[in-house]
Write a structure and sequence with these properties.
four-stranded mixed β-sheet, 7 helices
């Protein structure tokens, strides 16, 4: 018995809402041209790219009458054109490292707020999942540092000594707001 050759398909995932993906699976047809194999929608705020790949593989296997293990899937995550353009600009080699990191974090956080997971950003930006996760949580770390500094100034009285009671009250409000932001990010 001969083993069928592996077939490759491409799955292009678009995030129309923060809680769903629409995935179009394309592969080469018998006549050599590219054709749409199928389309599916995945719902859920934490649908992972591995799930999208598995679903695309199953759909392609059904359409092409092959076993799922004989299908290779290349997943492409579509992101808004503006974010893609900004990412390309933020990864230029002539850009200072800190400036590049700040812009990359900003882009990742915006996309994260739109429902993109770290694994989706890893595929979209061709970076490791751990790098994508760090891009998403760096702002929380900076926020925690700001909260700690403001709370320390408010509690140790340095705000009173250095800037007066009005500044101490402001530090206390900022610390409270930052803690609320952190709690919101954690959920």
């Amino acid at each position: 018995m001969t083993t069928p050759s592996r077939r490759s398909v491409q799955a292009r995932a678009v995030r129309p809402t923060p809680t769903s993906w629409t995935v179009v699976v394309t592969g080469s047809g018998a006549e050599g041209g590219v054709r749409t194999t199928g389309t599916f929608t995945a719902h859920g705020s934490v649908v992972d790219v591995d799930t999208l790949v598995d679903e695309a593989r199953e759909l392609a296997a059904l359409w092409l009458a092959l076993r799922p293990e004989d299908i290779d899937v290349r997943l492409v995550i579509d992101i808004p054109d503006d974010a893609r353009r900004r990412w390309v600009a933020a990864t230029r080699p002539d850009l200072p490292d800190e400036e590049a990191r700040v812009e990359q974090r900003r882009i990742a956080r915006e996309l994260g707020a739109a429902g993109y997971t770290a694994s989706a950003l890893a595929v979209a930006f061709d970076v490791s999942r751990s790098r994508a996760a760090r891009l998403l949580r760096v702002d929380a770390i900076a926020l925690a540092r700001d909260v700690t500094e403001a709370a320390t100034r408010a509690l140790d009285g340095s705000a009173v000594d250095d800037r007066g009671a009005d500044d101490r009250a402001l530090d206390e409000r900022v610390a409270g707001d930052r803690v609320a932001d952190l709690q919101g990010d954690a959920q």
